[in-house]
C-alpha cells in the first residue's frame, strides 16, 4: 500500500506540471482560438532567463518574478511580430510559425547557455530533510509550492474568463473575431493579451519546474506533449478541466507504467494517447469543454 500511495503521489506531481503547462495553452486558445506549439520552449527559455537573473545576483524569488515579467512582454512581442500579420483565420500558417518558434528558441537557448545541465535553486527549502510525511510517502516543499501556485493561477483564470468583461471579450474574439470587432472590441489587443498571459504562466511553471528536473534545452518537451493532451482531454476552453485532466493523466500513466509489465516506462506516453482517443470518441470537445454551435 505504501508503494501504491508513493506511485500515486509521483503521478500526481507529474500531473500538476502537465496541468500547469496546459493552463498556458488554454490562455492562448481562450483568447485567440489558436494552439501554440512553442509554449513549452517559451517556458524553457524563461527558466533560463530566471537562471541568468539569479546568476547576476538577484534572489531566486525576484529572479523568477523577473523572468515572468520578461516572458509576459515577450509573449506580446511574439504575437505582434509573428502572429498578428498572418491574420486571425490563418490557422495552419500560425501553427507552422509556432513550430518555427519552437526550433528557434530551443537552438537559441543552446547557443546562449550551452547544452550542459545547469543548477537552479528552489525558492523554498529543498534539502533531503525538507518534506512533509503523507500516507507513508514524502511531499517535498517544492512540490507543494508548485501545486499551491497552480491552484491560485487556475482559480484566477477561471474567475477571469467566467466573471469579468475582459474574459468575456477574450472568449468572444476567439469564437468570432469579426463579430467581436463589429461590437467595438479591440481584437488585436485582446489577442496580444492572451499570448502575454500564456507566456507569463509558462515562465512561472518553467522556473518552478527547473529545480526539480535539470535546466536543459529539452526540459519541457515531454511536458508539452502531456500538456497538449491534458488541454484536449479537459477542454481547451476550460482552465479547471485542463488541470484536472493533467492530474488524471499523470496518475494513470504512472500507475499503468508501474503495474503493467509490457508498458513500463517506454510506453507510458501511449497510455495518455489511448485515454485521449477514448474520451474524444465520446466527447470531442473534451470532458469539460463547451460545445460550439454555428448557424449554417
Structure, briefly:
The chain has helices at 2-32, 39-55, 60-83, 91-113, 141-163, 165-175, 177-182, 187-209, 221-234, 239-259, 268-282, and strands at residues 131-134, 137-140. It is mainly alpha-helical and 296 residues long.
Supply database-style keywords:
single chain; 296 residues; mainly alpha; two-stranded antiparallel sheet; 11 helices; 70% helix
Q: Please summarize the sheet with the most strands.
A: 2 strands, antiparallel
Query: What spatial form do the alpha-carbon principal axes imply?
Result: globular
Secondary structural class:
mainly alpha
H and E order: HHHHEEHHHHHHH
Report strand order across the widest sheet: 1-2
- So how many helices? 11
Q: What Rg do the Cα atoms give? A: 19 Å
Q: Which strand-content bin applies to the residues?
A: under 5%
Q: In angstroms, what separates the terminal alpha carbons? A: 56 Å
Task: Lay out the secondary structure.
Layout: H1 2-32, H2 39-55, H3 60-83, H4 91-113, E1 131-134, E2 137-140, H5 141-163, H6 165-175, H7 177-182, H8 187-209, H9 221-234, H10 239-259, H11 268-282
Antiparallel strand pairs: 1-2
What does this structure look like?
With 296 residues, the protein is mostly helical. The protein has a domain at 17-218. It has eleven helices and two strands. The protein has helices at residues 2-32, 39-55, 60-83, 91-113, 141-163, 165-175, 177-182, 187-209, 221-234, 239-259, 268-282; strands at 131-134, 137-140. The protein has a two-stranded antiparallel ribbon with strand order 1-2. Strand 1 and strand 2 form a beta hairpin. Helix 1 runs antiparallel to helix 8 (187-209), helix 3 runs antiparallel to helix 8 and helix 9 (221-234) packs parallel to helix 11. The longest helix is centred in the N-terminal third of the chain and has 31 residues, at 2-32.
